[in-house]
Amino acid sequence: MTVGVIMIGSSHDAGYNEAVADAANNLKKVNGVRVITAEQIPETNAVTDTMQQMADQGAKVIFATSYGYFKYALEFAKKHPDIVVLHQGGYQDGAFPSNFGTYWGAAYEPVSLGGMAAGKATKTNKLGFVYAFPISQSIANIDAFQLGAASVNPQVKTYLVNTSNWCDPVKQKEAVNALSSQGVDVFSQHQDCQTTVIQTAKDKGAKVVGYHYDAAKLAGDSWLTGSAWNWTPVMKDIVKTVSEGKFKGSQYNANWIGTFANGDNPLELASFGPSVDKATQDEILAKKKDLSKKGSGIFTGPIYCQDGTELVKNGVVASYQDINNFSCLVKGVVGTLPAAK
Prior knowledge:
Elements: E1 2-6, H1 16-27, E2 34-38, H2 46-56, E3 59-64, H3 70-79, E4 84-88, E5 100-105, H4 108-121, E6 126-131, H5 136-152, E7 157-162, H6 169-181, E8 186-190, H7 195-203, E9 207-210, H8 216-219, E10 223-229, H9 232-243, E11 255-258, E12 267-269, H10 278-291, E13 303-304, E14 310-312, H11 320-324, E15 333-334
Parallel strand pairs: 1-2, 1-3, 3-4, 4-5, 5-11, 6-7, 6-8, 7-15, 8-9, 9-10
Antiparallel strand pairs: 10-12, 13-14
Helix pairs in contact: 1-9, 4-5, 4-10, 6-7
Protein name: Basic membrane lipoprotein
Organism: Bifidobacterium subtile
Domain ABC transporter substrate-binding protein PnrA-like: 2-251
């Protein structure tokens, strides 16, 4: 079986796309599977062209792995019923064609754990978060990061900078410098590529919490922890499901979301850095265990927006669908959201 994997960025970005590339390389080791990859494909009609090229080479499964690929992937699936198309994003439910599905993980779960590490590490009580676009996933991650940090340090605040780009090193450096000038001493992000944010923060003597990929080696002593995608299990299982002729009506012919509670969240807690003491590690791991229980969640009310509006009622645990529809930043976050992309 031939499988296509499309990436928006470089397969060596120490971030989102490198995590995808790692899974693609692991798929190549599966007997009977041939993998075609394409990188640096923008969120335009270029995605459609790339999918067609892969189809012409015999691809029967195509993974379109960037957020903005969704509409192109769905349309392509409708026109090519003999090819199974998967979108990596998980932000939209609906009645999908029998050859289409989306997959993702409850990213905010490990992000909140990274927030705990940040809340413990900061000396200024100012955390920085550099994000690309005000999409639902970014909003959930920002909120979860602040909630996690505030759970161990009620005085902490998270300061935002928006880059309006998944990977723009110039804007990333400017963002870190601007936040550093405000006293931020721990940085996290929702960018595709991590290198510039990490290196700039490191040069400032700040700590970092990673996202998408375990960049402990890159960050060195600045590394606290982070969140790292392990796409291999779910992508292998999707390919297996297709090869067995069982995709239609399966869990993947829908909006599949991995979670801690189900034991299948593809976004895992990354390694701890040398400055994270055992007591902090134990506290974070205990929280991870708690989040793995059914009926538990980082978004447990009462939770309030910046303006005091109640976001989650007292005692209520917000569902993934609820969280995916959040449009406000929680108390403790400093900054505003630009208009959605």
